[in-house]
């Protein structure tokens, strides 16, 4: 997957409200993981989808028949954050009715409905199966004449809903896409991605070309777009040949906005000179005596505050931030020194341990030689005694 395409088609802008300063940011050199690639990359056209038959059977276990019973089957996606998405027109296609109305369902009788579903994209889907009726749900011992306060539902008003719990969950894996427009199909065919080569010889060739373009290249996961290969590297079935090398790349020139005169002069100054100049300039400026009057408790200027007060508040914020950063830098340097000292101590201890191990090895060697000498002497004494 080429980060170059993402860089060319991504425009990041930033804007500071108080100072009214804006600019642009670039994502050049971004490294994408496999999960990010699957999200960004257009899925290849493998197959349009397989039909799935969905059958629902309901049974009336009440002691009386049900009238005007509506059976509905609806697909949705649960984002596991309290949000349910029922707008799946581009993800699920249903052949047949997903909602049927039964005029009457007698007692202990069953009803069966079946439809066909095609999933167009992979993902996690759930099925909301429910039955609803507009018939009033009274207890057998309750009569409407005995309870005139009972209000009869209006026409079309749902009186009771039975829902299948827990909902049926369907998980679809793999990369599938469904496109009916010929131009989109053609685009998919000609803009596919290919794995990096596995042989060391081809990797070396690729590395010579891509070393100045990508800082990190994962040979097992990275993919290269087909736009970077010449037509001679494809066979009749648009498959990449074994000797294919990506050679088609746009010019590496990046449009850099022209810098102003102030930016050029600031870049020439060192950090110490810049800090000294800022301190000198702040000493020359006079802070307003009533600055606290124009500042709210949330450290923001009031609407009627003059521009001078707003600028001084920004200067104080920046100064406070610089002090914190300097303190953090000093602490970081101390930590680095402590780590360096610990590293040196660890190296010294390790060196001493290695010397101690060498001494123990020498002692063991001497004992082994002495043991061998004693064994020889024992053998000689045993031979002498036997004579």
From TrEMBL:
<keyword id="KW-0862">Zinc</keyword>
<keyword id="KW-0238">DNA-binding</keyword>
<keyword id="KW-0863">Zinc-finger</keyword>
<dbReference type="InterPro" id="IPR013935">
    <property type="entry name" value="Trs120_TRAPPC9"/>
</dbReference>
<feature type="domain" description="THAP-type">
    <location>
        <begin position="172"/>
        <end position="249"/>
    </location>
</feature>
<dbReference type="GO" id="GO:0005802">
    <property type="term" value="C:trans-Golgi network"/>
</dbReference>
<dbReference type="Pfam" id="PF05485">
    <property type="entry name" value="THAP"/>
</dbReference>
<dbReference type="InterPro" id="IPR006612">
    <property type="entry name" value="THAP_Znf"/>
</dbReference>
<keyword id="KW-0479">Metal-binding</keyword>
<protein>
    <submittedName>
        <fullName>NIK-and IKBKB-binding protein</fullName>
    </submittedName>
</protein>
<dbReference type="InterPro" id="IPR058568">
    <property type="entry name" value="Ig_TRAPPC9_Trs120_4th"/>
</dbReference>
<feature type="coiled-coil region">
    <location>
        <begin position="357"/>
        <end position="384"/>
    </location>
</feature>
<dbReference type="GO" id="GO:0003677">
    <property type="term" value="F:DNA binding"/>
</dbReference>
<keyword id="KW-0175">Coiled coil</keyword>
<dbReference type="Pfam" id="PF26283">
    <property type="entry name" value="Ig_TRAPPC9-Trs120_4th"/>
</dbReference>
<dbReference type="GO" id="GO:0008270">
    <property type="term" value="F:zinc ion binding"/>
</dbReference>
